[in-house]
Design brief:
It contains 13 helices and 11 strands. By secondary structure, the protein is an alpha/beta fold. The N and C termini lie far apart (52 Å). The structure holds NADPH dihydro-nicotinamide-adenine-dinucleotide phosphate and 2-oxoglutaric acid. The site of NADPH dihydro-nicotinamide-adenine-dinucleotide phosphate has 25 residues, from α6. GO terms for molecular function: glutamate dehydrogenase (NAD+) activity; nucleotide binding.
Length: 436
């Protein structure tokens, strides 16, 4: 009788993904992996490096303990993920939000790698976050949290290593605290360690508005291809924070009609167009669109509004297979990172709705962050006009190149952007080689 054949020694599959990378349902990280799978057929011989894109280079989880104002000690979970450093130091924002997870930060860091390569700024991709609802903290608690987090991640960030910036619920003040903490710990003032700083601390003119401005530029470029006139065009925006607020303002100033805006507390709707400056003033005073005079509209109807531009500018996975069949926009301009799931992408494509993806549409922020970093290194600061002109040129050229790749390969703008960006990343990976 033959004995069953049993290998003398079972070796774990050396190419198996680490467990935290390969679960079936990983939310934004799972969506990113699907986007990478879609680009693989277009990478030629570079496809042999594709696994590089599916594994973050480095993921740091830190405990961030702080003393609350009432004397108790609270522990928060913080992350900094450096997805890819082949093209330069890590670059990407820091998010403070109660739903932040490691897998979400991994996805956000990976989209930074793609975005930075798409606009050809010399960075890899990184992102950070703390799982906290900052609205529940006092200003002093927020400062302690930011400083402790900065110290905990301090050994992997730096002007030549990884440069954080603002994201959801972080701003110039948070960046100032991060810069100060890093500088104290390293023994010299280091303005280049973060971008999105106050102007008085080496920040750049135009950075605060840059992401929304980039969204507007990409929207107007895409509109030219679809023969849409901006004047009178209808715009619907989700999220009136830094990105959505500026984008809404610029569309309004260009003569478009912003007909609806949503944040986590409410929806504003005015079919003839909202007075955007008045709405933004209301939001800055009350923290939300809630309470602003409006015609009634529920959340399902919001996504189904007929419009030329639908701009998700809040969080991930807002346009899904559930609401994508009802979207009646001519195009979706992604101000947020990861707002459209791959299943929704397919539905929108079938329905002939153009999607200008996050990895190009919201790249204006990091582009001006790059300008800020360059200005800090040279201690020579540019005028706002110079910055905006350079920003517009980079965004127009990058979007034009992506548009052409999409036409040539008959793929979506998302896959086209991934083709351009992943080619750059993997070429750098190949040229550098693997061994020290
Ligand atoms: N800041 C930047 O430079 C860049 C940001 N991004 C991306 O843009 C998006 C927005 O970032 P940013 O504007 O900086 O963040 P902000 O914190 O300034 O604003 C976030 C906005 O999203 C709204 N929001 C949050 N949760 C929901 C929800 N569940 N439903 C509806 N609205 C919601 C917030 O409303 P409320 O206040 O009511 O919670 C707020 O209006 C994020 O995806 C971010 O990653 C991308 C590139 C650069
Ligand atoms: O300005 C930066 O460095 C990064 C901004 C960011 O986090 C993003 O583009 O998502």
């Amino acid at each position: 009788m033959n004995a069953p054949s049993v290998p003398a020694k079972t070796i774990a599959d050396p190419n198996a993904l680490p467990s935290y990378l390969n679960a079936d349902n990983l939310g934004p990280w799972g969506n990113y992996l699907q986007q990478v799978d879609r680009v693989a057929p277009y990478l030629g011989s570079l496809a042999r490096w594709i696994e590089t894109l599916k594994r973050p280079k480095r993921a740091l989880i830190v405990d961030v303990p702080i003393e609350l104002d009432n004397g108790t000690v609270a522990h928060f979970e913080g992350y900094r993920v450096q997805h890819n450093l082949s093209r330069g130091p890590g670059k990407g924002g820091v998010r403070f939000h109660q739903d932040v997870t490691l897998s979400e930060v991994m996805a956000l860091s990976a989209w930074m790698s793609v975005k930075n390569a798409a606009v050809n700024v010399p960075y890899g991709g990184a992102k950070g976050g703390i799982r906290v609802d900052p609205k529940l903290l006092s200003r002093a608690e927020l400062e302690r949290l930011t400083r402790r987090y900065t110290s905990e991640i301090g050994f992997i960030i730096g002007p030549n290593k990884d440069i954080p910036a603002p994201d959801v619920n972080t701003n110039e003040q948070v960046m100032a605290w991060m810069m100060d903490t890093y500088s104290m710990n390293s023994g010299s003032t280091s303005t280049g360690v973060v971008t999105g700083k106050p102007i008085s601390l080496g920040g750049s003119l135009g950075r605060k508005e840059a992401t929304g401005r980039g969204v507007f530029v990409v929207g107007t470029e895409a509109a030219k291809h679809l023969n849409i006139d901006i004047v009178g065009a209808r715009v619907v925006v989700q999220g009136l924070g830094n990105v959505g607020g500026v984008a809404a303002k610029l569309f309004h100033e260009a003569g478009a009609r912003v007909i609806s805006a949503q944040d986590h507390k409410g929806i504003v709707y005015a079919p003839n167009g909202i007075d955007v400056p008045a709405l933004l003033e209301h939001v800055s005073r009350h923290g939300s669109v809630e309470g602003y005079p409006t015609e009634p509209l529920d959340s399902d109807a919001f996504w189904a509004l007929e419009c030329e531009f639908l701009i998700p500018a809040a969080l991930e996975s807002q346009i899904t297979e559930k609401n994508a069949p009802f979207v009646r926009a001519r195009m979706v301009i992604e101000g947020a990172n990861g707002p459209t799931t791959p299943a929704a992408d397919d539905i929108l494509r079938e329905r002939n709705i153009l999607v200008a993806p996050d990895v190009i549409a919201n790249a204006g922020g990091v582009t001006v962050s790059y300008f800020e970093w360059v200005q800090d290194f040279s201690s020579f600061f540019w005028s706002e006009d110079e910055i905006n002109q350079r920003l517009v040129r980079i965004m127009q050229e990058a979007f034009g190149a992506v548009w052409q790749v999409a036409q040539d390969n008959r793929v979506t703008l998302r896959t086209a952007t991934f083709i351009v960006a992943c080619t750059r990343i993997l070429q750098a990976r190949e040229m550098r080689g693997l061994y020290p």
